[in-house]
Amino acid sequence: xxxxDEIDGVLPVxxxxxxxxxxxxxxxxxxxxxxxxxxxxxxxxxxxxxGCSVGSFYRRFRDKEAxxxxxxxxxxxxxxxxxxxxxxxxxWQDEPTAVMVRTLIENTANIMKRNHGFFRALFQRxxxxxxxxxxxxxxxxxxxxxxLLAEFxxxxxxxxxxxxxxxxIFALRSVDGVLVHRLLNExxxxxxxxxxxxxxxxxxxLGISDVPEEVRGTVARRAARSADGG
Length: 230
Fold this sequence. Notes:
- This protein is an all-alpha fold.
- Helices cover about 75% and strands about 0% of the residues.
- About 30% of the residues are buried.
- The model has no long low-confidence stretch (mean pLDDT about 85).
């Protein structure tokens, strides 16, 4: 079952052709929202970008709000699936924990930057009073990442907090908050400085030894190669 099928306002599709058209609309919507944000994007823009008619859009989605909720659902489900794949990558068996944490933060920043329009649109919906429709799922994604990080640290006998899971969730939510703020308000600021500073803070808070300076330069390349899939 496609995760968007459970969204109120997403109309049932039973044939493969109809599902393909819905997928094209969703992919096109990502590009349109990235370019225009939520408020300036129109159903006609999405349909045109997908090579579909406006009528085809309304046969699959009740309105733009339901369409954006479907996009949001896909994004959050994909994010949780990617987190599980990230922590299961065999390369971490031979790496210092700090390299994994730094790569995780780099990946998160890369995903947000690649989907900056989605986050801008999400912020616009929040200002319009729709926060409760979106942020609980986003928080659930970060919570799952924190749980997986805590499991990883326990398996290695690392981490100094009595409630390690809560500490990991708090650390990653703090990182997310800074990254979203920078994405919306300081898009041209120094990425390298910010990511290094966030990594240092998260590692220190969790009680994890950092890697030597000469190793840190490889983390961005590792992040670019790893399967974040976002």
